[in-house]
Design brief:
This protein is an alpha+beta fold. Helices cover 40% and strands 14% of the residues. The protein is built from two helices and two strands, in the order βαβα. The two termini are 16 Å apart. The mean pLDDT is 90.
Length: 73
C-alpha cells in the first residue's frame, strides 16, 4: 500500500497515520509531500508549483509500482 500524504493535511493526522503504516510493515509506504495539504497544494515558501508536486507524486507512484513486488496468493 502506498500512502501519499501532505504533511499539512487536516483530514489525516500524521500522529495516527504513521503508526498504522508502521504496523502494516514492509507492505506499506508513506510518502509525505512537504507543505502539502489534503489536495497537495503547497505553501509558497516551499518554492514548488502545483506541477512540481504532481510530478513528485507521479514519480513516487511509478517508482513504488516498479520496486514493489506483486504478491499473488
Amino acid at each position: 500500500m502506498l500512502f501519499l500524504q501532505g504533511d499539512r493535511d487536516e483530514f489525516a493526522d500524521l500522529k495516527l497515520l504513521r503508526p498504522v503504516v508502521k504496523r502494516l510493515g514492509v507492505g506499506a509506504t508513506l510518502h509525505l509531500v512537504e507543505g502539502g495539504d489534503h489536495s497537495f497544494k503547497v505553501l509558497k515558501r516551499t518554492g514548488q508549483a502545483g506541477d512540481d508536486v504532481m510530478t513528485e507524486l507521479v514519480t513516487t507512484i511509478d517508482r513504488w509500482c516498479n520496486e514493489t513486488p506483486v504478491r499473488v496468493d
